[in-house]
Amino acid sequence: MCRVVDVRQAVLAKNDTLAAALRAELTARGTTLVNLLSSPGSGKTALLERVLARAAERGIGVAALTADLATENDARRLARSGAPVKQILTGGLCHLECDQLRAQIDGWLPDGTEVLFVENVGNLVCPASYDLGESLRVAMMSVTEGEDKPLKYPTAFGLANLVVLTKTDLAGAAAFADDEFRAHVAAVNPGVEILPTSARTGDGVDALVDRVMAVCHGAAAHQPLLADRHMSEHGHDHGDDGGHGHGQDGGHRHAPLAVGP
To answer: What are the tens digits of pLDDT across the range 158-198?
Structure first.
């Protein structure tokens, strides 16, 4: 058992090193990487399509990489926005790792890209453990998924710099309890902003673009308390985080996260 833990920590440490280097390179070329995490069916692709199109309308240089176990369906959908898009097929792997991402960026990312959106594999467990070199980590969920999701996936929501609520046009039909949801988010990530959105109506699309561009222009991202705790407890040192916000530990935990009172 100890050997398994040692191997896992070695893999995560290598990933963190690669992520820190990629973040520095992207920062040097003026590109902000945004890592989008959610479960399948959250509406992540639909919202990202709207965000890419709106960003292009506003004259912002954007591109997207989308990861999935199989099919290029998401890349075809996102390409309708007019933005440069590339599909990453993970071959059954339930998350992206930084070396996979780096291999796709090299020689492809267009010059002048201000924001690179990475649509991670639909999964709120494995992807939370891997830093991809992002400057903004966004945890997303829909109103149809249940108010207690942040408590069920405390690492994904606890390390987010921003929480995005999707499909808000369905909140009434889903009997979504917004106050309960906000209380659960606050339990795992106090102070993080929750941004309501709807890909169908367009609500929140401009606001999301604004939040991303603020970080792109140097605004500090929300710093989760969970990231601070990991930095102090485990002594991770990845240098200047460029306002990254989740402490570069990639979410790998050695102790359970306490939630609630």
So the answer is: 999 999 999 999 999 999 999 999 999 999 999 999 999 99
The number of residues making up the chain comes to: 261
Name the DSSP class of 65: E
Q: How far is CA 149 from CA 42, 45, 155, in A?
A: 12, 19, 11
* Cα atoms in the 13 Å half-sphere on the side-chain side of 194: 23
Q: In this predicted structure, what is the pLDDT of residue 231?
A: 45
**CA–CA separation, 253 vs 257, rounded Å?**
8
Q: Are 242 and 121 in contact (CB under 8 A)?
A: no
Please report the DSSP string for 121-186 in residue order.
Answer: -S-SSGGGG---S-SEEEEEEETTS-TTHHHHSHHHHHT-SEEEEE-GGGTTTTT--HHHHHHHHH
Residues in the chain with pLDDT values less than 50:
230-261
The token duo for 49 is: 């399509």
Residues 261, 259: Cα–Cα separation, whole Å: 7
The residue with tokens 């290598």 is 14
pTM given for the model: 0.85
Which amino acid belongs to residue 215? V
| Residues whose CB falls within 8 Å of the CB of residue 144, separated by 6 or more in sequence, listed in order | 41, 167, 170, 174, 176
pLDDT at 237: 44
